[in-house]
Model the fold of this input.
Amino acid sequence: MKNSPNNLLVTGGAGFIGSNLTLALQEKFPDARLTVIDDFRSGDFKNLRGYRGDFVAQNLATLDWQTQFGEEKFDAIFHLASITDTTVHDQFVQTHDNVESFRRLLAFARPNETRIVYASSAATYGAASGVNSEADEAAPANVYAFSKAIMDNLARRAGAESANWKIVGLRYFNVYGPREAHKGIPASMILHLSRQMKEAKRPRIFKHGEQKRDFVYVKDIVQGTLRALEAKESGIFNLGSGQARSFNELIAILNQSLGTDFAPEYFDNPHAHYQNHTEADLTLVRHSLGYEPQFSLEAGVADYMRWVYPA
Done:
């Protein structure tokens, strides 16, 4: 995208990643017209403090895009809206809302071949034990991951229609950072553990803390998502830190950031299907989008804790 975009739309822009992206777009492109669509099921208006653009309160699974926007043309649409709570087990609701929202968006974008950047998920890899590569087949272990895998299928099909239509999927790994607290239970374990420790409680993690996650700071996710504006071709890419860090390591890092010294309290993992290891292979995204994470887990947690618990 050689020229600065004039008209940008973000779905799910009141949510965790969406609000961070929206405010970053506002800062990066101060003259652009910004529009956010959100139904507040997993968002909060407080996340958009300082936002200067338009806001459309609509459910994307039923939105008539043509009625809402008419002939308006967007330079790019960032699609981050979805049911993100993996504990929602209603297979119809989860799949219908996530997939049909994306299908309607594709239909609206098709005539003008509007660039789409959408949130896929590392959950599509399922309970893989090693490094997760985009070439791996989808192996969803829950209906949320299934819905994201179907979205990837639709994106590949639509992207094959025309070389000029750029559709970029981003498989976000285990994201943490500012503006996630409103999510409650689905918020990152980093936030939940820090709260336990601030309350002088031992942080509770699954036995024996050797499960590993690719924890990625939301500022890196935003940076990578912005890079998709310049993608020269359609594709699906991992966005993570590229490192798998154990829960025990995380506790040590939180202790360092918070100035505490709590040993973890271990308990049995109640989940039959659990990702014991996530780790993003960044080879493709480095080559195609020039993405390089800027925050180690130590640096990201320290920055986040300063935001959550200002002095």
The chain has two domains: 7-174+217-241+281-294, 176-213+244-276+302-308. The longest helix spans residues 91-109.
